[in-house]
Amino acid sequence: MMRREQGPMPHIFLYLTVLAYALSFGSYIRFLRTGREIAGGLGTLFLVLGLIAHYFALLERSRGLHTVPYHDLYGSMSLFGWLLALTYLGLEFYHRQRSVGAFVLPFILVFFLAAHLAPADRLSPTIAHGPVFAFHVTLSILAYAAFALSFVLSLIFLIQNRLLRNRQLSEVVWRLPALELLERMSRSSVLVGLISIAVGTILGFIWVDRLTGQYWYYDPKYVITLVVLLLYAVYLQLSRTTTWRGARASRLCIFNFVIVVLSFTVVNLYLSHSHRYF
Amino acid sequence: MEIVLVGLNHRTAPVEVREKVSFTADQARRAADQLRARGILDETLVLSTCNRSEVYGVPPETSHNCLSGLASFLSEFHSVGPDILTSSLYHHYDRHAVRHLFRVSAGLDSMLLGEAEILGQVREAYRSAHEQGATGPVLNRLFQGALEVGKRVRTETELGSRPMSVAAAGVKLAERIFGKLNGHSALVLGAGAVSEQVISTLRDRGIADLFVMNRSRDRAEELAQKFNGSVVEWASWDTGLLKPDVVVSSVSADEPVLPRRVLESAMNARGNRALFVMDLGMPRNIEAAASDLYNLYVYNLDDLSGIVQQNRQAREGEIPRAEAIVEEHVGKFLSWQASVELVGLVSALRARLREERTTFLHTRLASVTHLSPKDREQMEVLMDELLEKLLVEPAERLRGERELRRKIQNVEALRDLFLSDRDKR
Known about the structure:
The complex is a heterodimer of chains A (278) and B (425).
Chain A: H1 12-34, H2 37-65, H3 73-95, H4 101-117, H5 131-165, H6 171-175, H7 179-212, H8 220-238, H9 247-271
Chain B: E1 4-9, H1 15-21, H2 25-37, E2 43-48, E3 52-58, H3 66-77, H4 82-88, E4 90-93, H5 94-106, H6 117-132, H7 137-156, H8 166-178, E5 185-189, H9 193-204, E6 209-213, H10 217-226, E7 230-231, H11 237-240, E8 246-249, H12 260-269, E9 275-279, E10 296-300, H13 301-317, H14 319-364, H15 373-400, H16 402-407, H17 411-418
Parallel strand pairs in B: 5-6, 5-8, 6-7, 8-9, 9-10
Antiparallel strand pairs in B: 1-3, 1-4, 2-3
């Protein structure tokens, strides 16, 4: 397949996305600082606008490169950022709580900027087509975005918990969300992640079966994905028990995410053959 | 002099004097009626709270000695010797009176900086005086401005948003753990005044269930009834600590009321659901060693006073922003006032000039015999046209240009310049 070497064109949607996310970030910060509902509402509004602009930026990029967004590392990162924003928005609506926005938006912005400002990498021929494969990838990335979100939430939990336990009742304590809320949000985020990674993995197997006619051939990615699945299921269970409830569960959640990061750094780059990005 | 204020507050008068000079709602109405009936003030409003008694008013134009009239009225109304009163009273006029009221409603003049009640009290005083018909255009505008200042200061600054009592700070801290308190329950140990204050704050913040535990059951019953809670047997820790997420303890006892082992078994029984404990006892009601228990959050009086201290500083840091809002509205009010006065001045000037024109024509044309009545009429019309031409432009500029009105601050001087004493007002 012939392909033009072409960097992503600076495009109006790129600027619009950055602008909307930055404004959303600013509004969430303002909401955190002043507690004014209007600032929080603006944060959400700009996030929604950012999501829309980001979608078109992704579309534009894919068209420019004649590929799906998840076919290279940067596209995957951008898609990851988009799904992270989407998951966060879902959580925000579900829990009616906006004070986490200020902590999540920087991640979304970084992933978006890193993805769209970097040059496109050289693309290898692909056999990755069809809706099953598309859902497999999208759901898996959604799962990682949800896990990343629970990581951020658990981190904030630990910081807030430490401040409260050590009676360091400074300005920060009043700005961070309540502990119980962070716990609940983290759990629902993990639940979203678990469901999507389970469905995504099953779709992956179906796709491999269609492609090669066999369900199973060994890939280290399978093992680590299974480990991740198990670890998060264990987290969900333990986070309600006497011994683990609270800070311990949050530490486990953070540990789990370290495994996730390992999964798409070490495993993807050095061990797996079929999973290059995510 | 357009607006006058005479009053006393917690800074100028001790409580013994303040309570003598304070007005009930009914007294305030009566005082306003009498002040107007005696011709001391045209418009009146009495603002009386536990920290201040102030009379705002607009004196009649002919009044020269409104202040002493007001002071002696106050001393007569409350039967307080004038010598006691004069040392406590302060008085402000015009822009200073306006600024004073705006600072009061902003909470800047309160004993507890930024407290919220004063705005409600100002609103109530205004509503009552307005209903009674004691206010007029000037005081209406003034108090609407004051209410706006109060509202803006409370939404745009943090002057009033941080808790200033230990009880409120503790409850706010509990919200850092549980989020909103509805859906959670609280156990209060002790039934004294402090407990009551905390319970009332907890109820304000929407706590779902309330349990009271006290050595003397009677007092506990009383408190529980007042706040729609229920009484729990003293020291029934096994069951008493199972449900509540917030425990407030304010008991006078030499030994800790809740030793570590009690809390440890309670935490186990709760499955380590987070427990927030506010220890307001002195000596402390919670054994210090308990604070390292998992998911137990214990705060004592010192921790909570520390928060209050921080909040006080934070509130003080907001003063400049609040003062800026006050100044902005003082400027707005004065500009409005000047525009009203200037419009009045222009119409007085017009009347005066017409009068001049009539006498002028009358005397000067008396000896001119060759003019027909029609010509005389024509001359009058022409002179009127000239006068209108001279007056219309400045009058329109005064209506349209706020900056110009701001510059002409002393309307009185203009009156003196253009109108003789006879024509003033």
